[in-house]
Automatic annotation (TrEMBL):
<keyword id="KW-0732">Signal</keyword>
<feature type="region of interest" description="Disordered">
    <location>
        <begin position="210"/>
        <end position="233"/>
    </location>
</feature>
<dbReference type="InterPro" id="IPR045272">
    <property type="entry name" value="ANXUR1/2-like"/>
</dbReference>
<protein>
    <recommendedName>
        <fullName>Malectin-like domain-containing protein</fullName>
    </recommendedName>
</protein>
<feature type="signal peptide">
    <location>
        <begin position="1"/>
        <end position="28"/>
    </location>
</feature>
<feature type="compositionally biased region" description="Pro residues">
    <location>
        <begin position="222"/>
        <end position="233"/>
    </location>
</feature>
<dbReference type="GO" id="GO:0004714">
    <property type="term" value="F:transmembrane receptor protein tyrosine kinase activity"/>
</dbReference>
Length: 233
């Protein structure tokens, strides 16, 4: 077989709406299984202090966070609260980056869910249409030339949650937000920017790769790796 492709660590990008159903699995299995017992991280960006969302989950501000000790970028408040937002936290504040910035999350090696929350609206003088950016996780491209306002328009949702399953092999998950150069046809010549409202990281046993929940016990390496759609091995 000449054409083996390397295994791609991002398994899936799912719309988040399907996700709450999966979460209890990850959380319930988190107990003291393995590396998966590390606590989930809920970071609300562009804000300081702890606040709860409508599900009573606590979100830490990134303004005073150990994950972003010298966070750059601008703390910005959303100009408008869309009635369809599920909760003001984390959507009503954003951190805006006009140049690259990397958050470093010290996590145990293993698979984790990563959710990125975006509410594309004007943030002060930052127009929604000028948000155009890429996101990488440990050099793996998660989003590229992401036009969040266009994506929201196309989906008819005011907010966007992007979900990734990432296999972290080192001791940290480094998330980089990088403004993309404007495309010549965009009509944007005031500069583009990157932003994010919330970052959620949930360490999880390999539920996508495990035929039975045996990993809850700290189980064996799984002999049946999950093959991504369109992937080949
Ligand atoms: C589970 O956690 C408890 C308390 O933290 C500890 O005493 C126990 O040894 C752990 N069990 C395993 C299998 O790690
Ligand atoms: C929210 O969480 C706090 C602390 O974890 C708890 O005291 C409170 O009862 C919870 N409220 C609701 C409505 O679940
Ligand atoms: C995650 O990465 C580690 C180290 O490269 C590898 O041993 C493990 O099989 C990977 N897990 C999955 C599910 O790909
Ligand atoms: C910012 O990140 C992008 C994408 O990762 C990269 O192409 C670019 O060179 C970076 N810019 C700087 C100044 O590091
Ligand atoms: C993003 O998409 C919107 C809607 O299609 C467009 O008006 C805007 O120019 C785009 N922004 C960039 C930077 O390409
Ligand atoms: C650039 O931004 C300034 C100030 O926000 C605004 O007055 C101007 O119309 C913008 N120019 C373009 C081409 O969008």
């Amino acid at each position: 077989m000449a054409n083996l492709q390397p295994y791609h660590p991002v398994l899936a990008t799912l719309q988040c709406l399907t996700l709450p159903a999966l979460l209890p699995v990850a959380v319930a299995a988190g107990g003291n299984a393995t590396a998966a017992s590390a606590a989930p991280i809920f970071l609300r960006c562009g804000a300081s202090g702890v606040q709860s969302d409508s599900n009573n989950r606590s979100w830490d501000g990134d303004g005073s966070s150990r994950f972003a000790p010298s966070v750059k970028g601008v703390e910005a408040a959303a100009s408008y609260q869309d009635p369809s937002l599920p909760s003001p936290v984390p959507y009503m504040a954003a951190r805006v980056f006009t140049s690259n910035y990397t958050y470093s999350f010290p996590v145990s090696a293993g698979r984790m869910f990563l959710r990125l929350y975006f509410y594309p609206v004007a943030y002060g003088s930052y127009a929604a249409s000028a948000a155009y950016f890429g996101v990488t996780a440990n050099d793996l491209i998660l989003l590229d030339k992401f036009n969040s306002s266009q994506t929201a328009l196309a989906s008819t949702f005011a907010y966007i949650v992007r979900e990734f399953s990432v296999n972290v092999t080192s001791g940290s998950l480094d998330l980089t937000f990088a403004p993309s150069p404007p495309s010549s046809s965009s009509g944007q010549n005031n500069g583009t920017y990157a932003f994010v409202n919330g970052i959620e990281i949930v360490p999880t046993p390999d539920i996508f790769t495990t035929p039975t929940p045996s990993l809850v016990d700290g189980g064996d390496p799984n002999p049946f790796p999950w093959i991504p759609p369109g992937g080949s091995r």
